[in-house]
Specification:
By secondary structure, this protein is an alpha/beta fold. It is built from 16 helices and 20 strands. It has a six-stranded mixed sheet with strand order 5-1-4-2-3-6, sandwiched between helices. Strands 17-12-7-8-9-18 form a six-stranded mixed sheet, with helices on both faces. The protein has a two-stranded antiparallel sheet with strand order 10-11.
Length: about 550
């Protein structure tokens, strides 16, 4: 009886290991990441192993039985771990490829010496808002705040964010309700650096904006909208919809509350370019086996879906036939016409506050190339991914420090996530300023790519997968991602990664996002842009 029980246990263990192996194999097949040849090899290998284990079970020798039992326990543990990893992988891929919304964070800003801890404590205080700025989102949030906090104070509507900030500082209003993405622009302007030091956020509400699932290229709604409205902007200084005293004022819920509108004159308007010619230019053809991806690094912590300025603006030009990748860095302050601005210029970084589509479309027009995909990463995701990889080895072309916290030497530096972030963001203590920062960002991307395409990623695979979810988003389909992984596993080819950056010269100009105020911008160098276009074409064509 005891002998029969032991025999049953051995065969049950063998069967359990077999079932978990089959489940693991099904998971692997569903990911579609492994080549067919490798799948067949796995099936043959698994079959051979289980026939061998079954044969060992039938042997009378104790050593054979123990080899079989230990092997089955190990296989069972490995398969359970593998199923867990693949489950997290498929979930991660689903998470990063199915984010079809962007969010707008609307915050209640107060002076730092304000003692109130919530808006309920300020129910009767004056509230300031900015006309025309994320009007639907602000209107929605204001309505909720009025309902939840019984707000009854007068709403003062200002024509621009600076007069609204002045009103907060001077005590005309106690609360300033503003989109966080726009609030980040205020301290950029000379004379308003105080906003970052003297103002705090009392409460934040998040509004969700639906996005297009497919790539925002070719049939571009922003371009079509420009074509429909170009009659309104035939003259460079006709920018009625961007003057500070806007006619299309915010739709504020009244509820019996008095409303006051404050306006001011536009000092200077941002430069205008022939946007029509950019919209209609022929795009560089992207052949089969090649694609262009926009890599955006947004200046936020937390959710990657938040609209915000894009500090990193890199086009990754990929040719899977020649195994070449070209990284093209565009400075954040590049003075270019935004796709939503109907011919008016702005800093490239400001495109991010209008959504990822605006950044993609603007770079398409700048370089004359169809950008099929984007990958957006915020500070949280960047730090987590680098740490999950066990750090990365990054080349620095010079020695420099970032405050008192970080020091980097010329040559290779092993960096943690926060160190790599500091390295990639610094522009004041490096000789080339924003241009050096762009080069550093590409060096970090190279280091991450090299780590991800090496065998060492297998040791940190689960941690990397967990770090990506929630802090990384892309419109590349799961099928496309699977095909790229499958291709790499098929040939394990070495990739050639090169990088270039476009240059320019500094100036002070007004911008589309901040009319009436001048700020630092970089005027594009036409020669460097043309050189970038040529290199993009060469990589795409396989030269």
């Amino acid at each position: 009886m005891v002998k029969d029980s032991k025999c049953a246990f051995r065969y049950l263990l063998w069967l359990l290991a077999l079932v978990t192996t089959i489940v693991l194999y099904i998971y692997v097949v569903k990911t579609a990441m492994l080549p067919v040849g490798l799948l067949i090899l796995m099936a043959v290998l698994f079959s051979g192993i289980y026939f061998l284990l079954l044969w060992l079970q039938k042997k009378k020798k104790r050593i054979c039985l123990w080899v079989a039992i230990v092997s089955e326990i190990v296989i069972l543990a490995v398969c359970i771990y593998g199923i867990s990893v693949l489950h997290h992988t498929t979930k991660m891929i689903r998470d990063i490829t199915e984010i079809v919304t962007e969010t707008e964070a609307i915050s209640a800003y107060v002076l730092k010496d304000e003692q109130s801890e919530s808006l309920q404590d300020m129910a009767n205080e004056e509230i300031g808002i900015v006309s025309g700025q994320s009007s639907e989102a602000v209107s929605s949030v204001l309505k909720k705040l009025q309902k939840d906090n019984n707000l009854s104070g007068t709403i003062h509507e200002y024509g621009d964010m600076f007069s609204a900030a002045d009103a907060l500082r001077q005590g005309e209003v106690a609360v300033l309700l503003m989109n966080d993405a726009y609030a980040g622009l205020i301290s950029e302007i000379e004379g308003y650096e105080w906003f970052a030091q003297e103002v705090k956020i009392l409460e934040t509400s998040v509004e969700t904006v639906q996005m297009e699932k497919e790539s925002p290229s070719k049939e571009n709604p922003a371009k079509n909208d420009w074509n429909k409205q170009k009659e309104d902007t035939e003259k460079p200084d006709d920018v009625a919809d961007q003057t500070v005293g806007m006619e299309n004022e915010i739709n504020v819920p009244q509820s019996g509350i008095a409303t006051e509108t404050v306006t001011m004159e536009l000092v200077e308007e941002p430069e205008f370019v022939d946007w029509d010619s950019l919209v209609s230019q022929d795009m560089t053809e992207v052949p089969e086996g090649a694609f262009v991806m926009y890599i955006s690094g947004v200046d936020t912590w937390g959710s990657v879906s938040s609209k915000s300025r894009s500090d990193v603006n890199i086009l990754a030009v990929v040719n899977t036939n020649t195994k070449k990748v070209l990284l093209v860095s565009t400075p954040r302050d590049y003075y270019v016409p935004l796709s939503v601005a109907k011919g008016q210029k702005d800093k490239l970084t400001h495109a991010g506050i209008y959504g990822i589509d605006c950044s993609v479309n603007t770079l398409e027009m700048l370089y004359g190339v169809d950008v099929q995909y984007y990958a957006r990463l915020n500070f949280t995701g960047f730090v987590n991914i680098v740490d999950a990889l066990g750090g990365v080895d990054v080349y620095s072309d010079a020695s420099f420090t970032v405050g008192d916290a970080f020091a980097f030497s010329q040559g290779m530096n092993h960096m943690s996530g926060i160190e790599a972030l500091a390295f990639a963001r610094e522009r004041y203590n490096v000789s080339g300023g924003d241009l050096s920062r762009g080069n550093h960002q590409m060096e970090v991307i190279k280091a991450v790519l090299n780590k991800c395409t090496s065998a060492s990623i297998l040791y940190n695979y689960a941690d990397v997968m967990n770090s990506v979810s929630g802090s990384f988003a892309t419109n590349m389909s799961r099928e496309k991602m699977a095909s790229l992984v499958r291709m790499q596993l098929s040939d394990m080819a070495q990739w050639s990664i090169s990088s270039i950056g476009v240059g320019g010269s500094g100036a002070r100009k007004t911008t589309y996002s901040i009319p009436g105020k001048t700020s630092y911008v970089m005027l594009p160098d036409v020669v460097s842009i043309q050189n970038a276009k040529t290199q993009i074409t060469n990589v795409l064509s396989g030269n």
